[in-house]
């Protein structure tokens, strides 16, 4: 050791080493426990500290023993430090940065004077099972125990005031994922890429090379260079494949992927997984094996080779393998004195290590004592088989090798190479890796070809056939290694949990003979290292105590995640879709209190729900009921479908008529209700509850597709194609008539439960329903959604003199409760059959069949179940809580209150409740137990309606008034248009143009016509695009094959007539059921344009958008940020990448905002309607 | 995460689908006995091994599809029913 080369600042820094990763020209200053130190760029925090002469970094968990370097890797249990406001930083991995404030954790008041270390004095006090035994009783002392125990928790401090960080997740797709960038992993990656596979190579450390970096740094650099230059290999360093799940779905954790982003998860789907995780050196058990200065041979070599740091001054080396022998040479080359080489293969052994704070003396089993500050051990390896275990493999312990080996490949698509399967020289490792790489590539490419062929958008690559199947991979030699676990003394087994070999022996003696039980009892392998260092030693100690073999003792299951992952990365960005009506911005700006109802954001009230109720009863109110589900049904067999799904009869519903219907599931439980109207000969619109819309649609499709594929019916959801407004109150006829043209609104012509179509406030194709939920004369107006705001504002201005009042969901709930209308899901639950919901009148058991009939026949015969009744508390001022219990006089529970409110109309409390039959007779006075325990009385009413049971309020004889003149309505896009605006074909659009390389534009004004027909009929033959394709049709139309037997025809704004013309021409003599539904107002349509569009989508969409899977002209439907979205690749002129995305209009705002947010790191910019005015034409 | 082989769309993540349980045909209402209905509605065999299941590709083609899934390994292949 030539001390002249050691500076005062970095006394342990060695002269330049071949392959070192530090940049000596760039000195970094940092603070260590308040002291100013310096290191070099490329140093880890620990290597910089070690260069500065620091040997002690932390205190242990239970005994608060001083700890130094063990492995000098990310997993080193002794090198977890606090860095600024971040606790538990893996400091032997984290790179040094200028100005870092580094402190030790788990120490008080200081690293070297730690009061908690007194626990060491009462060593037996913390015997295994200590926590269970000591703190069990008495229970009342738990709070005190907790305070004591909390002192022992090892962890840093979390700065509560620290600003939140940004985390995101991404989807990734590759053919071959290689976990581990050592020689075998790199060889596998190179070979796989050469075979034509897309490869992702993931290396935990900051450089490729693995152990070659210190064994043969030139060789490592050369191989790494080949990998970096190879085509088709995506290299991620400082990243870990932390988990593998079904279908080769892997969690790749990227650390510090971007400034300000601490970690990111890549949810990676790979064809083949190659596990090349290498080996972790195993500590040796002897007294003092955790003293600072005792370290693994690989740690010493890392420090010297990568960071040019002397791990000590005078060394003893315990070696049992060639790596240990090489460490001796390495230390000597670095100028470190090797005082003694103890060769375990010839009987040498270390008995104990001694030292006050750090290592001072090594005692051998032959009694020799050697003064030394460094003891290097090389006694064997642990195979980190985690990913193989997660793939279903069960690696076996091989005594000859003294480690677990994975002999068989666990399953097609999962491979392993390198130290996990055997030993070998560099050449052997390379050959094995390459052979496995080719095998993995061929499997993945076969899988990929099959996927492309099975995918309607896929275009098979025209490239040559894959190379002929490679021969079997020649196995790596099984290593020969002595089984060395423990010396003649006891020492630490689990360094992060402070579990010693003595603890394990005593646990076994206490009767915990199974390794799984010992693990839970002693917490061995349950600390941050999760078995990486201690697993095999623990098994060996247990085995020797029980007298079994290690193989018999078993292995511990490796579970995800393999490395520690921040909770932020696991949580990622939260995609929680919300839906808005067109009117929600109006509601928000008029004082509406938002109510979250399922995915919908709705107005609960506008400040005074009681006033809103009174306005409806006395004058007229309007409510936004857009979320009500609507299904467009077409075809000759719609009545069959309605008869099958509703419990009541549907055969003779005349055109222009509306009927209320109830649906039950097959178990007879009420599932949804709503009204259905017949608009034309073979055209119906079904309405559903807001929350049931999706389920009813699926239920309808299930019946049509699986049970009655012979029925000729097409279903199209049109829930948000319309803005739905209920106009209710005595003046509603007068108000609606002022807006409506083409419909006679007189009571005689347009009676209750009738439907008409006409023009409302200048908006054509509006549907008017005379129905209501409030008991008042009322109309439900469905207007094409883009005109929703226009019509809402027209109602407000036309009804000013009538005192028109917007009302929210709360007022509507009071009104319907006054009228006694049930709400499915509120007044019924998952067990309420139709006869328990007061629906006896609706159920028609004389129908031959309907969903739920057998169960309802049974319920009818048994007379079983509760009854729905109206209840009025005797004390009119008491409003029982919803879910309050209804009691028999004996106190037995006999039902519950399902809805309750104070009625402003009756000035008393009113309820609906489900009660047993014995309590359901009108006039019964029953007990209601309130939440506070008080019991009040209530009277069962003769009918469900509290207000106007005779229904006279519907017979309102106001006459219609003459319609006013309305200006041309303005159609609005699905998101607010930014900046200056203009009008295109009656649509208000933004003229703002962004020059950003990636832009998002609202192109909702495009005409969107849905076409349905048989997937394999004559229409399908004639349509210009097959399922999965988007094809131009002339230069004004784009036909998208959006589903089997389902198309979307897109046209420039205002070109609806042209599109319908073209369609009618090819559909006219098709002689099969074809349906054409205009969804222009029902879908939000966006254009995402720019080369990095696919990268943005990878944050929100799991589909592989590679050119062979989703080429230009491809169309598919999938999940985008949690919203079912149609994705069309329609590249621009000149080949610039472009996607059109469309979803339900009510999800448009959410999708738009989410795409802008997810694209921030790609610089996405919002832009107006395309300046060229054309989206379809290229 | 599993992928399911949709006969229309190709392999897709299982989260795009809704599970509709093992394939079991609905009895005809009239001749069916109470016991048959009881079996159809409430009794499931839940075997360990291959089961033909119905899935609804709700976030894709919106077709009901038939898939044979091994409940032990999660290995899937197209089912026999349409
Ligand atoms: Zn599908």
What about the largest sheet of chain A? 7 strands, mixed
The total count of strands of chain A amounts to 61
* Number of separate structural domains of chain B: 1
Q: Say which CATH homologous superfamily of chain B is assigned.
A: Folate-binding superfamily
Radius of gyration of chain B: 14 Å
Cα shape of chain A: elongated
For this structure, what is the CATH class of the largest domain in chain A?
Alpha Beta
CATH evolutionary superfamily of the largest domain in chain A: Probable tRNA modification gtpase trme, domain 1
**Runs of chain B with pLDDT <50, length 5+?**
none
Number of domains of chain A: 6
Q: What's the mean pLDDT score of chain B?
A: 92
Class per helix and strand makeup of chain A: alpha+beta
Name the beta content range of chain B. 35-45%
Strand tally of chain B: 6
- CATH architecture label name of the largest domain in chain A: 2-Layer Sandwich
CATH overall fold name of the largest domain in chain A: Gyrase A, domain 2
- CA radius of gyration of chain A is 37 Å
Characterize the quaternary organization of these chains: heterodimer
Share of helix among residues of chain B? 10-25%
InterPro entries (chain B): SoxD, SoxD_sf
Pfam families (chain B): SoxD
Protein name (chain B): Sarcosine oxidase subunit delta
GO molecular function (chain B): sarcosine oxidase activity
Explain briefly what this protein structure is.
The complex is a heterodimer of chains A (1178) and B (82). Chain A is α+β, with helices and mostly antiparallel strands and 1178 residues long. Chain A is 22% helix and 28% strand.
Describe this structure in words.
The complex is a heterodimer of chains A (1178) and B (82). Chain A is α+β, with helices and mostly antiparallel strands. Chain A has 6 domains: 23-132, Ubiquitin-like (UB roll), CATH 3.10.20.440; 169-279 and 384-454, FAD/NAD(P)-binding domain; 281-381 and 481-559, FAD/NAD(P)-binding domain (3-Layer(bba) Sandwich); 584-817, Gyrase A, domain 2, CATH 3.30.1360; 827-952, Probable tRNA modification gtpase trme, domain 1 (Gyrase A, domain 2, 2-Layer Sandwich), CATH 3.30.1360.120; 983-1167, Probable tRNA modification gtpase trme, domain 1 (Gyrase A, domain 2), CATH 3.30.1360. Chain A has 27 helices and 61 strands. In chain A, strands 8, 9, 10, 11, 12, 13 and 25 form a 7-stranded mixed beta sheet that branches. The longest helix of chain A is centred in the middle third of the chain and has 29 residues, at 426-454. The relative contact order of chain A is 0.07. The model of chain A is unreliable at 1-6 and 118-125 (pLDDT under 50). Chain B has 1 helix and 6 strands, in the order βββαβββ. Chain B has one domain (1-23, 43-82): Folate-binding superfamily (Folate-binding fold). Chain B has one helix spanning 34-42; strands at residues 3-6, 10-13, 18-22, 50-56, 64-70, 76-78. Chain B has 82 residues and is mainly beta. The model of chain B has no long low-confidence stretch (mean pLDDT 92). In chain B, the strands form 2 sheets. Chain B has a 4-stranded antiparallel beta sheet with strand order 3-4-5-6, with no helix packed on it. Chain B has a two-stranded antiparallel sheet with strand order 1-2. At the A-B interface, α19, α23 and β58 of A face β2 and α1 of B.
């Amino acid at each position: 050791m030539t001390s002249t080369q050691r500076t005062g600042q970095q006394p342990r820094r060695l002269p330049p080493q071949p392959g070192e990763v530090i940049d000596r020209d760039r000195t970094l200053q940092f603070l260590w426990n308040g002291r100013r130190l310096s290191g070099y760029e490329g140093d880890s925090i620990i290597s910089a500290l070690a260069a500065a002469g620091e040997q002690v970094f932390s205190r242990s968990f239970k005994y608060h023993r001083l700890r130094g370097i063990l492995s000098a890797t990310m997993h080193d249990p002794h090198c977890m430090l606090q860095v600024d406001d971040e606790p538990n930083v893996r400091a032997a991995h984290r790179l040094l940065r200028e100005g870092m404030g580094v402190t030790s954790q788990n120490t008080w008041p200081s690293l070297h004077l730690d009061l908690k270390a007194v626990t060491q004095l009462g060593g037996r006090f913390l015997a295994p099972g200590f926590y269970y035994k000591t703190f069990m009783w008495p229970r009342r002392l738990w709070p005190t125990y907790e305070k004591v125990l909390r002192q022992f928790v090892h962890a840093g401090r979390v700065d509560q005031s620290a600003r939140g960080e940004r985390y995101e997740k991404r989807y990734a797709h590759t053919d071959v994922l290689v976990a581990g960038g050592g020689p075998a992993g790199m060889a596998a990656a190179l070979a796989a890429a050469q075979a034509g596979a897309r490869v992702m190579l993931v290396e935990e450390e900051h450089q490729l090379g693995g152990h070659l970096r210190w064994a043969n740094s030139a060789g490592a650099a050369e191989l790494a260079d080949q990998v970096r230059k190879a085509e088709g290999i995506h290299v991620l360093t400082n990243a870990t494949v932390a988990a593998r799940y079904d279908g080769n779905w892997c969690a790749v954790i990227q650390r510090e992927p971007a400034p300000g982003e601490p970690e990111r998860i890549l949810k990676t789907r790979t064809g083949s997984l190659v596990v090349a995780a290498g080996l972790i050196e195993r500590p040796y058990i002897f007294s003092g094996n955790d003293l600072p200065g005792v370290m693994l041979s690989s740690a010493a070599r890392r420090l010297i080779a990568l960071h040019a740091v002397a791990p000590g001054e005078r060394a003893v080396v315990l070696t049992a393998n060639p790596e240990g022998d090489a460490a001796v040479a390495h230390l000597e080359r670095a100028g470190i004195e090797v005082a003694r080489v103890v060769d375990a293969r010839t009987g040498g052994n270390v008995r104990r290590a001694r030292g006050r704070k750090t290592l001072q003396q090594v005692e051998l089993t032959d009694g020799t004592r050697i003064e030394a500050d460094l003891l290097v051990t090389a006694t064997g390896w642990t195979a980190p088989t985690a990913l193989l275990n997660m793939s279903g493999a069960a690696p076996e312990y091989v005594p000859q090798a003294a480690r677990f080996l994975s002999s068989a490949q666990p399953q097609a698509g999962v491979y392993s190479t390198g130290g996990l399967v055997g030993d070998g020289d560099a050449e052997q490792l390379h050959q094995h890796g390459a052979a496995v790489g080719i095998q993995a590539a061929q499997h993945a490419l076969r899988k990929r070809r099959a996927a492309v062929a099975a995918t309607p958008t896929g275009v098979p690559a025209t490239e040559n056939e894959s190379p002929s199947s490679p021969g079997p991979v020649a196995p790596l030699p099984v290593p020969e290694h002595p089984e060395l676990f423990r010396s003649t003394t006891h020492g630490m087994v689990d360094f992060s949990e402070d579990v010693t070999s003595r603890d394990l022996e005593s646990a076994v003696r206490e009767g915990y003979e199974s390794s799984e039980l010992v693990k839970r009892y002693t917490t061995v392998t349950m600390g941050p290292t999760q078995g990486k260092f201690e697993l095999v030693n623990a098994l060996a100690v247990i085995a020797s105590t029980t007298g079994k073999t290690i193989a018999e003792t078993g292995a511990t299951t490796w579970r995800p995640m393999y490395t520690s992952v921040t909770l932020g990365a696991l949580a990622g960005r939260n995609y929680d879709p919300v839906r808005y009506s067109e009117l929600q911005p109006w509601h928000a700006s008029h004082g509406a209190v938002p109510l979250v109802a399922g995915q919908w954001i709705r107005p609960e009230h506008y400040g005074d729900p009681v006033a809103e109720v009174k306005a409806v009863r006395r004058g007229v109110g309007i409510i936004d009921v857009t979320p009500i589900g609507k299904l467009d049904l077409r075809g000759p067999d719609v009545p069959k479908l309605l008869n099958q799904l509703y419990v009541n009869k549907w055969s003779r519903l005349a055109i222009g008529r509306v009927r209320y219907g109830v649906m039950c599931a097959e178990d007879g439980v009420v599932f949804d209700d709503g009204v259905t109207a017949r608009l034309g000969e073979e055209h119906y619109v079904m309405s559903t509850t807001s929350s049931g819309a999706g389920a009813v649609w699926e239920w309808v499709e299930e019946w049509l597709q699986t049970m009655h594929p012979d029925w000729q019916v097409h279903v199209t959801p049109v829930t948000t194609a319309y803005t739905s407004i209920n106009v209710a109150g005595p003046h509603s006829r007068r108000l609606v008539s002022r807006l409506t043209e083409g419909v006679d609104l007189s009571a005689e012509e347009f009676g209750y439960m009738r439907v008409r179509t006409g023009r409302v406030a200048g908006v054509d194709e509006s549907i008017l329903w005379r129905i209501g939920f409030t008991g008042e004369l009322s109309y439900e107006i469905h207007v094409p959604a883009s005109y929703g705001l226009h019509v809402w504002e027209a109602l407000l201005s036309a009804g000013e003199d009538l005192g028109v009042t917007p009302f929210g969901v709360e007022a509507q709930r009071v009104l319907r409760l006054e009228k006694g209308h049930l709400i499915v899901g509120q007044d019924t639950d998952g067990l309420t059959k139709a006869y328990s919901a007061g629906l006896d009148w609706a159920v028609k058991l004389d129908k031959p069949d309907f969903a739920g009939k057998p169960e309802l026949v049974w319920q009818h015969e048994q007379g079983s179940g509760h009854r729905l009744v109206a209840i009025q508390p005797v004390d009119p001022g008491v409003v029982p809580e919803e879910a309050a219990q209804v009691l028999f006089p004996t106190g037995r529970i006999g039902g519950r209150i399902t809805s309750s409110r104070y009625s402003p109309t009756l000035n008393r409390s009113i309820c609906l409740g489900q009660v047993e039959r014995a309590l359901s007779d009108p006039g019964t006075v029953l007990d209601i137990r309130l939440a506070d325990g008080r019991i009040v009385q209530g009277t069962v009413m003769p009918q469900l309606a509290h207000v106007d049971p005779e229904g006279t309020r519907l017979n309102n004889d106001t006459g219609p008034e003459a319609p006013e003149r309305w200006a041309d309505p303005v159609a609005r896009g699905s998101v607010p248009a930014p900046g200056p605006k203009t009008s295109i074909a009656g649509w208000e659009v933004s003229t703002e143009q962004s020059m950003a390389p990636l832009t998002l534009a609202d192109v909702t004004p495009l005409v969107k016509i849905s076409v349905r027909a048989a997937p394999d009929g004559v229409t399908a033959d004639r349509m210009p695009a097959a399922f999965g394709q988007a094809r131009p049709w002339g230069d004004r139309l784009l036909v998208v094959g959006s589903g089997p037997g389902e198309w979307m025809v897109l046209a420039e704004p205002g070109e609806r007539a042209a599109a319908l013309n073209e369609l009618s021409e090819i559909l006219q003599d098709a002689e099969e059921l074809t349906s054409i539904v205009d969804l222009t107002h029902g879908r939000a349509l966006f254009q995402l344009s720019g080369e990095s569009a696919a990268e943005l989508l990878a944050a929100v969409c799991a589909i592989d958008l590679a050119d062979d899977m989703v080429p230009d002209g491809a169309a598919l439907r999938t999940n985008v940020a949690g919203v079912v979205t149609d994705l069309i690749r329609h590249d621009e002129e000149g080949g610039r990448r472009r996607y059109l995305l469309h979803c339900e209009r009510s999800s448009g705002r959410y999708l738009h905002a989410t795409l802008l947010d997810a694209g921030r790191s790609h610089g996405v910019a919002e832009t107006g309607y395309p300046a060229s005015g054309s989206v379809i034409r290229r | 995460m599993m992928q399911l082989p949709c006969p229309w769309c190709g392999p897709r993540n299982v989260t795009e689908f809704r599970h509709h349980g093992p394939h079991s045909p609905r009895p005809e209402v009239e001749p069916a006995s109470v016991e048959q209905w009881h079996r159809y509605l409430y009794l499931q065999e839940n075997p360990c091994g291959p089961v033909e299941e119905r899935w609804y590709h709700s976030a894709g083609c919106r077709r009901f599809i038939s898939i044979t899934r091994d409940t032990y390994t999660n290995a899937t292949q197209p089912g026999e029913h349409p």
